[in-house]
Design brief:
Strand content: 15-25%
Largest sheet: 8 strands, mixed
Amino acid sequence: MGNFSLDELMVIEASRYIEDYEVVFSGTGLPLVSTMFAQKTHAPHLCYVVETGPIAPLVLPTPLSVSDSRAQHKAVRLGSLRDVLGCLMQRGLADVGFLGGAQIDQYGNINSTVIGDYQKPRVRFPGSGGANDIASHSRKILIITRHEKRRFPEKCDYITSPGYLGGPEDRRQVGLASRKPLIRVITDLTVMETNPATGRFRISRLMPGVSLERVLDETGFRPEVPSRAEEVEPPTEEELRVLREEVDPYELYIKTHS
């Protein structure tokens, strides 16, 4: 493998699924980093919307939360939660919802609330924030996380943000506005996307040097497996420069080497 880490390639690969001029609702952490990268490379006209209210900011490196003032720099509007989640998101104006999570199951459901029993959890997380709204209304959903078996159980301990719930028609049956969004999860091992016919994940790409067997060993459910999975394209030197010097220069989120 070249002079890059799988963490770096994960962020760059996730950004490749954002197109120029799309409206992107992105959570903090790796989703924000990947969105910033897309804005500084192939999608300079994307409209980034922060769930706390800023619309179309030119984000400075590197915000630690969605309330960080660096996520408000040169925004065209400093709105409110009502403005972005009510007036934009719930009107169906989000092209891309970009999230992370503690658990992601075979149907793309996300848990960012508790591990274990809800009343007596082993671990309690911050909860939804705007993530449920983003997953419920976006036409395309991106999820980015490091690949560990504990993060990919067959069934989430708690569903904070809906994927396909339990099957291909479940979003329609519970009345979600976005009924069959394309859900992609990008990890440091693979890219998986939902099969709209089943609502379950299938493997679409593998990171360089990563075998299919390793992905299956690190996944708590059996994803659909294609006859041949393409390899993720390595980053260019210019992509690495932008990521390291302009997006995350202090390595707050990404390690530069494996």
